[in-house]
């Protein structure tokens, strides 16, 4: 049975120094630090890789973050994987729980995470299940 968690979060994204793989500026690397509030309360730390294009409204990114906290009172950690694109201004984003990444009371966690941006603030909807180990 799928459960929905909702709340807000604060995020800090910090660009990292370019390296030999991004000499032309089209590839980037960033760190992500979040503080989550609401049904999912805790922190996350992650890393993001970006790809920019000559078309200002087209780009892509992938990211992985480790979340530590409580989900409707269940404590543990899990990883989220992001795949995002901007295709001439049209956004596409999929964020999913990495299979078998849940620990503690979040062992068996599956789900999808949606980021909502409005009025300069971030919120989330997280549809999830916790499937007991067989």
Q: How are the secondary structure elements laid out?
A:
Blueprint: E1 3-15, E2 27-38, E3 40-52, E4 59-71, E5 74-87, E6 90-97, E7 109-118, E8 121-130
Antiparallel strand pairs: 1-2, 1-8, 2-3, 3-4, 4-5, 5-6, 7-8
Describe the structure.
The chain is mostly beta strands and about 130 residues long. It has a single domain (about 5-15, about 25-130), classed as AOC barrel-like (Beta Barrel). The protein contains no helices and eight strands. The protein has an eight-stranded antiparallel beta sheet with strand order 6-5-4-3-2-1-8-7, with no helix packed on it. A hairpin with a 2-residue loop joins strand 5 (about 75-85) and strand 6. About 15% of the residues are buried.
What key attributes describe this structure?
134 residues; mainly beta; 8-stranded antiparallel beta sheet
- The largest beta-sheet arranges its strands as 6-5-4-3-2-1-8-7
The number of domains is 1
Count of helices? 0
Query: How far from one another are the termini?
Result: 17 Å
Question: Tally of extended strands?
Answer: 8
- Strand fraction: over 45%
Shape: elongated
Rg calc: 16 Å
Stretches where pLDDT is under 50 for at least 5 consecutive residues are none
Oligomer: single chain
Order of helices and strands: EEEEEEEE
SSE-based structural type: mainly beta
Could you give a short account of the major beta sheet? Answer: 8 strands, antiparallel
The pLDDT mean sits at 94
CATH topology grouping: AOC barrel-like
Query: What's the CATH H-level homologous superfamily?
Result: SO1590-like
């Amino acid at each position: 049975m799928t459960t929905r968690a909702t709340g807000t979060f604060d995020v800090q994204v910090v660009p990292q120094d370019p390296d030999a793989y991004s000499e032309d500026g089209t590839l980037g690397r960033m760190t992500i630090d979040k503080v989550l509030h609401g049904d999912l309360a805790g922190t996350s730390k992650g890393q993001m890789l970006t790809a920019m294009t000559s078309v200002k409204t087209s780009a892509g990114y992938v990211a992985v973050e480790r979340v530590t906290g409580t989900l409707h009172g269940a404590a543990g950690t899990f990883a989220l994987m992001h795949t995002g694109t901007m295709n001439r201004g049209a956004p596409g984003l999929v964020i999913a729980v990495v299979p078998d990444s849940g620990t503690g009371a979040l062992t068996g966690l599956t789900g999808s995470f949606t980021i909502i941006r409005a009025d300069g603030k971030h919120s989330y909807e997280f549809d999830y299940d916790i499937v007991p180990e067989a």
